[in-house]
Design brief:
Its cofactor is thiamine diphosphate. This protein is an alpha/beta fold and about 800 residues long. α4 (about 95-100) crosses α12 (about 340-380) and α16 (about 470-485) runs parallel beside α22.
Length: about 800
C-alpha cells in the first residue's frame, strides 16, 4: 500500500520517497484532526444555541480518509450523515460550508448542499445548473443528497451502480460522456451498523449480488444504534457474519466481503484499495465491515452516551480512538515527532475555529442587514408598538429572521386601517421581503428548469378516418416502442415487465425488440425498484420504474417520499431525477388490488407530478410529455381499462397531454362534476341516466392531481353551473377533499356556488371481493345519479321532487 502515491484521481504515479510518504501520512492526520475539531466545536455551537441540532462523524475519521483515497472523479457517493471526514478529504465540501449548513444559512453559495434546508452532515454536490441543465459529472466527485431516513441511502445506490453497468454494456450510450466514462465509475455507499437491520439494506445487498453491480458498501460499526447494542440489533451481533452466505465464490455471483478495524490506518488503506479495484475493474460488489469504531461524543447533540455505555466501554473508546491510535503509530514508526504533531494539532484547531467564525459572521451579516432595515423603518413610525419592536430587535445579540419578521408583522397588525407614510413603507418592505423568503424557504419543489413539463409543446393526437380501434394496452405498447426507439436513454423495469411485458401487456414483446438492458425484470422489492430508478435518473438515464399495483406503492413509499419527492427541494434544485413511477389501480374486485390511496400519494409525494389518466390514450399523451421533460412523476393507469377499445392515434409516440391541466369531457348547464381515472367512466355512465331526468351535468376530468387544474377550468365551469360535485374512489376526506380545497380556495370557487358543494367517495374501507363488494363500496353510477339529483332537489325542490 505505502509503496505508491496517488494523484487527485487516485492513479498510481511513482515509488515514494520517505518525504513523500511522510507528507501523505501527515496530511491525512491533519484532515482527521480538522474533522474531529469540527465535531467538537459543532456540538458546542448547538449547546450554546447558535444551531438547532447537530450530528457528527467523530470516531470514523480514518476509515473515511481511506475511502476518499480511492474515490475518483465520476464516482458517486450515497452516504450516511456521519461522513464529514470523507467529504473534507475528497474535496466535496469544506469546514466553512459545513458550519454554514449547521447554522442553516439560506444562501446556496454558503451551503451548496441545501441552501440551509438540511441539517448538518447532509451533503450533496450540485449536478444541475441554475437553468436546470445537467453539469458534467465526470469532472467532479459526486455525492447524492443525503437523507436522514436510516438505510434510505441503500435504495438509490442500486441505480447509481447499475448505471455504470448499463453504460458499460450499451455502446449506444457512449455519447452521454458527461455522465459516464463507459461505465468505469463506482458507487460508494456508507451506512451505520444499526441501520443494517432495515429491510431495504437486505433488499439492496441481494440485488447488487444478483446483478454484480459495481458498488463498495461501507458499514461504520461503533457497536451501537443510539443506545441499543449490536447484540440486540443483529443476529450473532455481527453483520458481516450474517452476510457470509452472500460471499462470492468461483462461478457464482455474490459479494466480496472484507472486515477491517476502524483504527488500523494501514489496514484500512489496503482494504479500500483492493475493494475499489475489484468493483471498478471486475464489476463485483464489495462490502467493507469497519469494526471497532468509536463515537466520542455519543449519537448526537440531543443526549449523552454515558447514560448507556459502561465505564469499561467508555475507557476502551478512549484507548482505541482512531486518532489516538494513528498518532501512536506515527510516533512509533518515526514518521513525525511529537512536536510536529502538536503543532499540527494546534494548526488544525485554529483553522477550524477561523472557518467557523467566518461562517457565523457571514450568516449573521445576512440576518443583520434585514434586521437593520426593519429597525430603521420601525423607528420612522410614531407608535408605541413600533417603538417596542424596534428596541426589541436592537437588543438581540443574535437576531433571527423569525424574530425580525415576527416583530414587523405584529406592528402591521397594530396599525391595521391606519394610513401613514411609515406604515406604507414598512408594508412595502415586508411584501418585498416575503418574495425573498418565499424563494429561500418555499421554492424549488420542482426544478422548474428549461426542460420542465410546462415547456413541452402541446401536440394534439391525430386520427385518420381509418384509425384502428384497438385494446387500450396496444396504444400504450406502441407509444412505448416509438419512444424507446427515439431515445436510447429510456429503459423500463419492474416485476414481470421484461419477459412477459408486464401483467397487462404494456411492454409486451419489447424486451425481444429492444434488448434485456432496456426492458427487464426485477425481484419483488418495491423500495429498491424505486431506488434503482432514482439512481439511474440522476446519472442521465430515463427510467420507468414499475410498481405492479397501486396498493404495492405503500411498500416503496419511504424511498418515493423521503428521497425522490424531496430531492429538488432539499438541494435547492441542485439535483434532479426525472424518474417515472408507472403503476395501475382504481377499480378491481377485491381488497388487495383495488385500493385507491390517492390521499396517501398527495400527502407524501409532493415533488412528483401525479397523473391519473382516464384511459390509455391519455396515459400515452402524458408519457410522451414526461419523456420529453425532466421532472419526476407517478402515472396511475386504470386497471380495468387495458382491454377497453380506443382509437389509435397516428402520432401515438408524439402527441402530448399537458401536465397540470384539466379537460372538459362533456358540457352541461346544471352542475359541475369533477372526477378522474376509472371513476370518470362511472360519471359518464350516470350522465346518460341524468339526462333522462332532465339534468345536464358538465364533466371535468382532472387528469393530474399534482399540479391540479392550472388553467382553472373548474372555476370557469362553476361560473355557468354554480353547483359542484366531486367524485372519486379514495376514502372519505381523501383526494376529494384535496380537490375541493383547490377549487374553493385557490380558484375562489366558493364565491361561485349557490348550493353546498358535495363529495362522493368510496367507503372508509377497502372493497370486499366480487362485483357486489365493489358496487356497495365504491361510487356506482346509481350513487352519482342520486347525489346529483339530491343537489338539484335542494336547489329546486318543485322541479326535482325527492326521490326517496
Amino acid at each position: 500500500m505505502f509503496d505508491t502515491a496517488f494523484d487527485q484521481n487516485n492513479e498510481s504515479i511513482s515509488t515514494l520517497s520517505f518525504d513523500e510518504f511522510k507528507k501523505i501520512i501527515v496530511n491525512d492526520y491533519r484532515t482527521a484532526l480538522e474533522s474531529r475539531y469540527v465535531s467538537l466545536l459543532g456540538r458546542k455551537e448547538v449547546l450554546t444555541g447558535k444551531a438547532k441540532f447537530g450530528i457528527f462523524g467523530d470516531g470514523k475519521e480514518l476509515a473515511q480518509i481511506a475511502m476518499a483515497k480511492v474515490f475518483r472523479n465520476g464516482d458517486w457517493r450515497s452516504g450516511y450523515y456521519r461522513d464529514q471526514t470523507f467529504i473534507f478529504a475528497s474535496g466535496i465540501s469544506d469546514v466553512y460550508h459545513f458550519f454554514s449548513q449547521l447554522y442553516a444559512h439560506p444562501d446556496v453559495e454558503a451551503d451548496p448542499s441545501s441552501a440551509g434546508r438540511q441539517m448538518n452532515c447532509h451533503f450533496s454536490t450540485r449536478v444541475v445548473d441554475d437553468q436546470g441543465n445537467w453539469l458534467d459529472q465526470m469532472v467532479q466527485k459526486n455525492s447524492f443528497s443525503d437523507i436522514s431516513t436510516t438505510g434510505g441511502q441503500m435504495a438509490r445506490l442500486l441505480g447509481l451502480g447499475l448505471a455504470s453497468k448499463l453504460y458499460k454494456q450499451n455502446r449506444n450510450l457512449d455519447y452521454l460522456s458527461y455522465f459516464s466514462n463507459r461505465g468505469n465509475e463506482v458507487a460508494f455507499c456508507t451506512i451505520g451498523n444499526a441501520a443494517t437491520s432495515e429491510g431495504v439494506f437486505f433488499e439492496v445487498i441481494n440485488a447488487v449480488g444478483v446483478h454484480q453491480i459495481p458498488t463498495v458498501i461501507s458499514i461504520w460499526d461503533d457497536g451501537y444504534g443510539i443506545s441499543v447494542p449490536n447484540e440486540i440489533q443483529t443476529t450473532k451481533g455481527d453483520i458481516s457474519e450474517v452476510l457470509k452466505g452472500f460471499q462470492k465464490e468461483e462461478l457464482t455471483n455474490g459479494i466480496e466481503i472484507f472486515k477491517v478495524r476502524g483504527w488500523d490506518y494501514a489496514g484500512l488503506c489496503e482494504t479500500y484499495e483492493q475493494a475499489a479495484h475489484i468493483a471498478r475493474e471486475k464489476h463485483i460488489p464489495c462490502l467493507i465491515h469497519v469494526t471497532e469504531l468509536t463515537q466520542p461524543q455519543g449519537h448526537s447533540s440531543s443526549g449523552s452516551h454515558e447514560r448507556y455505555k459502561s465505564q469499561d466501554r467508555l475507557q476502551w473508546e478512549t484507548d482505541f480512538d482512531c486518532l489516538a491510535k494513528m498518532k501512536e503509530w506515527i510516533l512509533s514508526s518515526g514518521i513525525a515527532t511529537i512536536e510536529e504533531l502538536d503543532q499540527l494539532d494546534q494548526h488544525a484547531k485554529d483553522h477550524v475555529r477561523q472557518e467557523q467564525k467566518r461562517a457565523w459572521a457571514d450568516y449573521i451579516k445576512t440576518l443583520s442587514i434585514e434586521a437593520r432595515e426593519a429597525i430603521d423603518l420601525l423607528q420612522g413610525i410614531p407608535n408605541e408598538r413600533a417603538d417596542f419592536a424596534s428596541k426589541k430587535l436592537q437588543s438581540m445579540v443574535e437576531p433571527s429572521l423569525k424574530e425580525v419578521y415576527g416583530q414587523v408583522r405584529k406592528v402591521l397588525h397594530e396599525l391595521k386601517g391606519q394610513h401613514s407614510d411609515g406604515r406604507q413603507q414598512l408594508l412595502n418592505w415586508y411584501k418585498e421581503k416575503q418574495e425573498l423568503n418565499e424563494k429561500r424557504y418555499n421554492s424549488k419543489l420542482f426544478t422548474d428548469g428549461v426542460d420542465s413539463p410546462a415547456h413541452v409543446t402541446v401536440v394534439p393526437a391525430v386520427y385518420s378516418e381509418e384509425a384502428k380501434v384497438v385494446d387500450g394496452r396496444e396504444v400504450l405498447n406502441l407509444c412505448f416502442e416509438e419512444n424507446f426507439r427515439r431515445d436510447e436513454r429510456l429503459l423500463a423495469f419492474g416485476e414481470d415487465v421484461g419477459k412477459i411485458g408486464d401483467v397487462n401487456q404494456g411492454f409486451a414483446g419489447l424486451q425481444e425488440k429492444l434488448g434485456v438492458h432496456r426492458v427487464f425484470d426485477t425481484g419483488i422489492r418495491e423500495n429498491s425498484i424505486i431506488g434503482k430508478g432514482l439512481g439511474l435518473a440522476i446519472r442521465g438515464l430515463r427510467p420507468i420504474a414499475e410498481i405492479q399495483y397501486l396498493d404495492y406503492l405503500i411498500y416503496g413509499i419511504t424511498v418515493a417520499s423521503d428521497d425522490l419527492a424531496s430531492l429538488s427541494y432539499r438541494t435547492f434544485a441542485g439535483q434532479k431525477a426525472p424518474l417515472i413511477i408507472r403503476t395501475r389501480g382504481h377499480r378491481l374486485e377485491g381488497i388487495w388490488h383495488s385500493g385507491s390511496p390517492m390521499s396517501v400519494i398527495l400527502g407524501s409525494l409532493r415533488g412528483l407530478h401525479v397523473c391519473v389518466p382516464r384511459n390509455m390514450t391519455q396515459a400515452a399523451g402524458m408519457y410522451n410529455t414526461l419523456f420529453r421533460s425532466d421532472e419526476p412523476a407517478i402515472v396511475v393507469e386504470c386497471l380495468n381499462g387495458y382491454r377497453l377499445k380506443e382509437r389509435l392515434p397516428e402520432n401515438v409516440g408524439e402527441f402530448t397531454v399537458p401536465i397540470g391541466y384539466a379537460e372538459c369531457v362533456k358540457e352541461g348547464r346544471d352542475i359541475t362534476v369533477v372526477s378522474y381515472g376509472s371513476t370518470l367512466r362511472v360519471v359518464e355512465e350516470a350522465a346518460v341516466e341524468l339526462e333522462r331526468l332532465g339534468i345536464f351535468i358538465e364533466i371535468i376530468d382532472a387528469q393530474t392531481l399534482q399540479p391540479f387544474d392550472k388553467g382553472k377550468l373548474c372555476a370557469e365551469s362553476l361560473k355557468k353551473t354554480n353547483k359542484l360535485l366531486i367524485v372519486d374512489e379514495d376514502v372519505p376526506g381523501g383526494a376529494s377533499a384535496f380537490i375541493l380545497q383547490e377549487i374553493l380556495e385557490k380558484q375562489n370557487g366558493y364565491y361561485l356556488l349557490d348550493s353546498q358543494p358535495r363529495t362522493l367517495t368510496a367507503k372508509a374501507h377497502r372493497p370486499p371481493y366480487g362485483s357486489d363488494g365493489d358496487y356497495f363500496s365504491k361510487p356506482s353510477s346509481d350513487d352519482v345519479v342520486e347525489t346529483v339529483y339530491a343537489i338539484m332537489h335542494e336547489a329546486n325542490p318543485e322541479k326535482y321532487p325527492s326521490m326517496f
